[in-house]
Amino acid sequence: MSRLDRRKFLKGAGLIGGIVAAQAAPPFLREGLGARPIKWGSIHPTTGPYSTEAFDQVEGVKIAIEDVNKEGGVDGREVKLLFRDDQFKWDQTTTHALDLIDNHRIDFLAGSMVGPEEVRLNEFSRKRKIIYANYPQHIMSTPGNAKKMSPLFFTANTTPYQLCASSLTYIAKNNLGKKIHCVFDDYIWPKMFIPAFEKLTKDFNLTWNANSSVSWVPFPTSMDYSATFPRILKEKPDVVYALNWGQRQVAFVKQAREAGLDKKVKIVLGATEITMPEAAGLGSYEGFNAAMMWHPSLASKYPAAKTLNDKFLARRKRPCSSYGMLAHDLTRLILDTAKETKLYKRRDHFKLAKVLEGKKFQYSKGVCEIRPCDHVCISEVFVMRGKSKAEMKDKFDHIEVIGSSSGEGNTVSCEAKGLKEPASERRA
Amino acid sequence: MAAGGVEFSEFVQHLFLGLVQGSFWVLLALGLSIIFGLMGIINFGHGAFYMLGAYVGFTVSDLIFSPFLGPNAGFIVALASVPIVMFALGMVFERYVISRIYNTENERFSGVLIMFGMSIFLPDFVRLLWGRPGKPFNIPPMFQFSLFKTGTLDITAYRSFTIITAAILVALLWVLIYKTNLGMMIRAGTNNNTMVKVLGINVSRIWRLTFGLGIALAGFSGVMIAPLFAVDATMGELILVQTFIVVVVGGMGSFIGPVIGGLILGQLWALTPLVGRTQYVVQNWTGTVIGPDFWEKASDILLFIVMAVILLLRPRGLFGQEGAFD
Amino acid sequence: MDAAAPKNRFTPREFWAWISEVFDNYGILILAGLLLVYPFFFSALNDSIIWLEDNDWEATAEVVAEVRGFVPSTPLMIQILIYTLFGVAFNILLGNTGMLSLGHCAFFGVGGYTVGIMHAWIKPGTYAPDWMVNAFKVLPLEISLITCIIVSTFVAWLIGTICSTKRGVYFAMVTLSISMIFYYSAQTFDDLTGGTDGLGGLENMRLGSIGLRVGIMDANITYYFVYILSVVFIAAIWQVLRSPFGHVLRAVRENENRARICGYNVAKVRLMAFTMSGAVSGVAGALAIIYGETVPIENIHFITSGQIVIITLFGGAGTFLGPAVGSFIYWYLRQLMSVEFVKYLAIFQYWEAWVGGIFVLIVLFVPSGILGTIRNMTLEYREKKLLNRKAVAEALAKNADDETAADTE
């Protein structure tokens, strides 16, 4: 026993000595930036069908955090990104969120790509009282979800209503036609557009009816949209409004061109992203209009957009998608606000939320504002036109911005939702 | 001419669309059925190989041949070479992977599980090789015209081409299986493997060829469907369940089963939305009129309902061999 | 005994045989014991990091945090436990009755949706009728769990009556197709289920009898809640599989006709196994929902069925604790690849390809899974030892007989 003790003692002493030495070795961590870093815990599905966009998000967050650190960090503290891949598996979202909040003691929760992920992280924000920076979706904006929304939920994204409003404004302003027919995928996201259509088509005096002007396409297995085309062509609408995403939108565009639908009616896509024209081929979006949250060609209009896009091109070898931009802008907004107000600790989150409510900010697009009552980000939504093959400069240059609309008129008002007080005062 | 409020031309359009969809299902289901009939393996990786076919087609046409020969010739080269590449790939896969499980315990389960593993492996492997975003693969210019103008939706050239190609392919397969020596061996092997072995025929070679044939059919459907649908790493997951339904309805272990099953279900899928546009008013139990949108949504679920009914009433499928699954 | 015995005691073969034997006999107890103290172990590690961070030992904290990255966290262990329960339930069919079901996502999902819908909608101002809302001040978890067991048992029985007469791969296809009907239903009735976005806003995940708040609020409490339920159900399954009924299941797996000739109603046995498996899978699904406090539609999708097949086969379908080992390896491997390995090698971001490839290799070269292979490797040896023991016992008995014979003489 005595011998072992001596050896163990020596080993232990060596270990402790090593640790002390390691402690002393990297001095750069103790210099300049203050004590404990601020941890930004971010969860993205960089696996599965939306991994391209998820990697864009991660890059956007990285760029934002690097910039903040370059400008001196938040209150002299370094911001550290803890990024987790939740593997497109929502049990893993919970696992990572719990691990980040409990064990890594993150100061801000961020991330999400698709609906279930947002719903999960929103619950975390609501029950564990942590600010949640939601990057792409915004299903919490619907009136039915208003009570489920966490008071600490923030997003820079547009709501279905805003997307719909911008497209319909464009249709009405440019007199594209009176009669609208919709092609919706049969799941919950397109269903959120129905209330918007019911209200806005009346406002703009367009011919539309929820029962007879919507073609529902089975989701997710049926990718053949052409089964709806005979009905569309028989109804003879002026504008076809289609809502689909990812490879389904690519399939829709290809089939519409193949059937000659784009020659006979004007096609407006409810939402699109730069990865989709890329997957559909050169010049495939010619003649199509689409609503979009952001596009890298806005770099010519906003200098901040240009720097962001240049950094993206250098790192990812492809232009920044709106996912990357949304992630970047929201991260910058929250960190910059925390820097100004020095409210970054977990216990100050409700105070920080109060500051963020009603805050106007401008990064990669025009001035945006977070509305206090439901945290909808009132911002520009752009309308795009697909370029023809001859107009394209490189293989990413599919789309040209031809208009935008913004303002509170693009949203469901707080009164209509029955919400009065700011969300941060509304405790569940 | 109009019957029940639906114009004849509209009916023809839907018939045509159903034929296109049906012919893809026939090709995929035949590949599945041939492999199952002989080897007893349900190919859960069928969708993954179909996806791989589309990617190989994209590479051959858009990356290798189109820059030199133009898009038309590139497409034709892709159409011709993808089955060959996939056939070789299938044979290699059978030789080095599948053949290891023969004569082990749980032979059939292991086969299913290997193919299941491939359906997980291949999508990410494709992302690794070709990158994460989908790939552009479009209809070549020579097929971008309409054969018949019907006033509303035209009968387009590419879709007609797919129907004709599928029909020719099915005919060739029929000849191969029913009129050649190899086909005779395949049929004999499907019936009684041991007996074929006893007769001194190299069974493993036939199995290899058959597996290659099934994979080639999957890859060929992939490259044919790619200009109409999207080329994406996840495209195989979605088609797999539909192919299963076709096979269950048509019946396994027979040649005619998947063909008829695919065509019937294709028509069912395409003609269901038409029901909502007839003049006949259908009401549900509360008296609400069921609008056209219901029938559009129903076209996918109806496939499952048909399958359930078939399973309950005729478990071996419409043309299935009795006892094929025991 | 003679002097040769101690020499052989530590041959690797004997070591593995010993391990395997101990695992077979006491594995469930050992695992349960280890898992009982796991949160203490992990929080000790984690608290040390927090202490180091708070006391300005940043660099040391970084080093220890690197180590922690390779240790599965308590939340990950909750997930592993849930899928262990699911896998053990699934293994009643695959390992013991020889039925490959690819429709178990239906039970997993239905169990989850039952709990989720009860907690999301039984509150004022929703679809629920008043008497239901007024019955409890807060809906206790016990009520929803019992409802979940009833519902999933019923669903399993219903599907079982359709499917359990089918055989082999056909059974797999039919269960797969039927489970897809459940997926479509969940998607179609999205007012109730939240559709593809999942059902959120679940309130009052509270054990009514002791007023304990489980769910995302505290990982340790949730861990013990999941742990106790999993252990109870796994122990119940263990007992059932050891009972005569369990032996009948294995008889059906080995030779159905012989079992039938022996007088067992094979169809009924298969249906019972299917129902039992489905009911416990439903509980596992409910635990997954309680853990995450939202219901994602993915739980009812075919992918979940695929996962549980992989988990069971990783560990070994023939062994009782195979799914536990499989679940641990599957989730831990995914976590390691997507979080830790990817920091050093970018190719690990394609971890699905790795997991799929490893799965194919396991089916090819280790067809009986990890535990199963260890058991098979040592089986021969153990049989021999068993025979030796038998021989000794027989010799002793014979000796005794002789002695008694001598006495009587």
Structural description of this entry:
The complex is a heterotrimer of chains A (428), B (326) and C (409). With 428 residues, chain A is an alpha/beta fold. Chain A has 15 helices and 15 strands. In chain A, the strands form 3 sheets. Chain A has a 7-stranded mixed sheet with strand order 7-6-8-9-10-14-15, with helices on both faces. The relative contact order of chain A is 0.13. With 326 residues, chain B is mainly alpha-helical. By secondary structure, chain C is an all-alpha fold. Chain C contains 17 helices and 2 strands. Chain C has helices at residues 4-8, 12-54, 58-69, 74-97, 104-121, 130-135, 141-163, 168-188, 190-193, 219-242, 244-254, 256-261, 266-292, 302-315, 322-344, 351-365, 369-408, and strands at 206-207, 212-213. In chain C, strand 1 (206-207) and strand 2 (212-213) form a beta hairpin. The chains are: A alpha/beta (428), B mainly alpha (326), C mainly alpha (409). Chains in contact: A-B, A-C, B-C. The interface between A and C is large, with 52 and 51 residues.
Task: Give the CATH topology of the largest domain in chain A.
Answer: Rossmann fold
Shape of chain C: globular
Radius of gyration of chain C, taken over Cα atoms and rounded to an integer in Å:
25 Å
Give the strand tally of chain C.
Answer: 2
Main sheet: strands, sense, barrel of chain A = 7 strands, mixed
Helix content of chain C: over 70%
What is the CATH class designation of chain C?
Mainly Alpha
- The quaternary state of the protein chains shown equals heterotrimer
N-to-C span of chain C: 30 Å
What is the general shape of chain A? globular
Sheet/helix structural class of chain C: mainly alpha
Number of strands of chain A: 15
Low-confidence stretches of chain A: 21-33
Percentage of β-strand residues of chain A: 15-25%
* Structural domain tally of chain C: 1
Helix and strand run of chain A: HEHEHEHEEHEHHEHEHHEHEHHHEEEEEH
Helix-strand string of chain C: HHHHHHHHHEEHHHHHHHH
List keywords for this structure.
heterotrimer; B: 326 residues; two-stranded antiparallel sheet; two-stranded antiparallel ribbon; 10 helices; 4 strands; C: 409 residues; mainly alpha; ABC transporter involved in vitamin B12 uptake, BtuC; 17 helices; 2 strands; 77% helix; disordered N terminus
